[in-house]
Amino acid sequence: MPRLSVICVYDDKAILEARLLRSLRGQIAEYELVLVDNVEHQFHSASAALNSGASKAVGDYLLFTHQDVSLETNSALEQLLETAETLPRMGVAGVAGAAVTAELGEVMSNMTHGNPPQKVGRITPSVPVLALTVDECFFAVPRTVFSKFRFDESTCDDWHLYASDYCLTAQGQGYLTYVLPLRVHHQSGGRRTRAYYKTLGKLLDKHRPRNTTIHTTTGVWSTRFPPCAQMGVGVAVWSTRKICARIGVANGRVTDALARIGSLFYTPPW
Q: Fewer beta carbons within 10 Å, N or C terminal of the chain?
C-alpha cells in the first residue's frame, strides 16, 4: 500500500493533465492519487473538497496540491517521504512558507510560479526549515495529525488560507510547520479577491487568542485590526518609506519609525 496519497481538487481537466498528472507519471516513489472532481462546482470551498478527498485516502501522509503544480524532479515525492520521517513533531510540511525570522514578511521556498517562471521568496532553503505557515499550492500532513482535526470548513469556506489556518491550528496542538527544499512550479500566482479578505478576517478572529500577528506568504497581518484597514494604512506607510529612500532621506529615525508604524498594520512580502 502506498505511503503517500496525492490529493487534488480540480475544475479544469486540461490543466490537471498538462501540469500535475504529467509530472506525477515520472515519479519514482509509489503514491495513491485521489482526484476530487469539481468541474461542476459542487464543492464551494477547498476545505470541503479536500476533506472529502482525504476521507478516501489510505496513505500515511496526505499531500494536498493544486491542479496547476508541476514537480521539477522525478524524486520529489520520494524526497518528501524520506524527509517527513525525520522531522520532529511534523504537523505540516510545504514548499513555500513564512519564515521564522526577525525580518518581517520573508518568504522561503525553492519553487517558481507564473509564466515565465519567477522565483518565490528571497530565502532558498537547502534543508528542511521551520516555518510559521505554508502556501496552499503544495503541502503534506501526516495521517495521524489529520485524523485529529481536518480543514476548518467554517473559517475557510471558500478557496483561501486553509493551509495557513491548518498550520496555526496544528501549532496550537504542539505540532511544527516546515518548508521542504523541493523544486516545484506553480503555474498561477494566486489572486487576492474580496473572498480572500473575508476569510482573512475570520482567520484573524479565530487565532487572535494565541497570536498578535499572523505570518503568511502574502504578508504579516495584525490580529488587532481589520484586514482592509491594514492594507490601506500599511501599504501607504511602506510606500512612503520607499519614496523617502529613493529621494535620499537618510534619516534612520524617520525610516525606522515608518517601518514600525507599518508593521503594526501590514507587512507586504517584498
A: N
State if pTM tops 0.90. no
What is the residue-level pLDDT of the chain in tens, covering all 270 positions? 799 999 999 999 999 999 999 999 999 999 999 999 999 999 999 999 999 999 999 999 999 999 999 999 999 999 999 999 999 999 999 999 999 875 666 899 999 999 899 999 889 999 999 999 999 999 999 999 999 999 999 999 999 999 999 999 999 999 999 999 999 999 987 677 788 999 999 999 999 999 999 999 988 888 988 877 776 555 555 555 556 556 555 555 544 554 554 554 444 443
Same-domain status, 193 and 259: no
Same domain as 166, residue 52: yes
Rounded-to-10 torsion of CA 70, 73, 77, 78? 180
